[in-house]
Amino acid sequence: MKVVSVREMKANWAEIERQVAQGETFEVLNRGKPSVRIVPAVPRKVLKWDDHLATALPSAGKTGAETVSLDREGRW
Q1: Residues 39 and 14 sit within 8 Å (Cβ to Cβ)
Q2: Domain for residue 51, yes or no?
Q3: Of 4, 24, 46, 62, which sits most exposed with the smallest number of CB within 10 A?
Q4: What is the pTM of this model?
């Protein structure tokens, strides 16, 4: 983990951003004290659900609005 001051972070943001994208972590000091940590973002997993209709609840002849209303049971 690399340590930079707020001033250094502002002056070199493009380079810091590039390094973070490559996996580097930075700790930012504000007046000599740790303020924030900048870490790489973790990509979100894409949910693949090929046959979602097979696991859906049966409608029992009700409309979508009726099903939602029954599910909420007067909560909204």
Answers
A1: no
A2: no
A3: 46
A4: 0.56
State residue 47's pLDDT score.
Answer: 80
In this structure, is residue 6 part of a structural domain?
yes
Query: Has residue 16 been placed in a domain?
Result: yes
Provide the number of structural domains found in the chain. 1
Is residue 53 in a domain?
Answer: no
Per-residue b/e over 40-74, b at no fewer than 16 CB within 10 Å? Answer: eeeeeeeeeeeeeeeeeeeeeeeeeeeeeeeeeee
Per-residue pLDDT of 29-68, as tens digits, reads 999 999 999 999 988 788 887 777 777 767 777 787 888 8
Contact assessment for residue 46 and residue 27, using Cβ atoms and an 8 Å cutoff: no
